[in-house]
Amino acid sequence: MSTPTLPRTRFVDLVLRTCELAHVSAPQPDPTAGEPLRVRLVVDDVGFDLVHLAEEIAGLVVCSRFGKIPPDRRRESLMHALRANSRLARVHAASFGIDPGTQELVYITNDELSGITPEDLVESMTKLARHAAEWRQAGLVCV
């Protein structure tokens, strides 16, 4: 078993402290696991994947699972996501996409591990969960 790198250890610590603050069950990520290391959480009925791509990378990918696109609203939902991507491209390294495995609309962000606190991450996930709820209420995605 190898010794985890500092970025991997930071990722695991961030995940555990974030779970505590968000009052969600804390998974037991193995800091010596292969790459990428993915942790799945649910905050306010929205699924989140927290991903550390490689041990030597000090970055965090957050994938928010908004829901599946209803077949009868596919065009409208995708146009809404494309318009949001256009706005997001100007201000933040984030975008909407489709998970090819689940066909869910996902919102993906990248952050530096050193620049994010558990409080920041909980706040971000809570806001994203609210946005996902708005998309669900508008019928643009479903659970």
Give a brief description:
The protein is α+β, with helices and mostly antiparallel strands. It has helices at 6-22, 74-91, 118-137, and strands spanning 37-43, 46-52, 59-68, 94-98, 104-112.
Architecture overview:
The chain is an alpha+beta fold. It contains three helices and five strands, in the order αβββαββα. It has helices spanning 6-22, 74-91, 118-137, and strands at residues 37-43, 46-52, 59-68, 94-98, 104-112. Strands 1-2-3-5-4 form a five-stranded antiparallel sheet. β4 and β5 (104-112) form a beta hairpin. α1 crosses α3 (118-137). The longest helix has 20 residues, at 118-137. The chain starts with 5 loop residues before the first helix and ends in a 6-residue tail after the last helix.
Write the layout of secondary structure elements.
Blueprint: H1 6-22, E1 37-43, E2 46-52, E3 59-68, H2 74-91, E4 94-98, E5 104-112, H3 118-137
Antiparallel strand pairs: 1-2, 2-3, 3-5, 4-5
Helix pairs in contact: 1-3
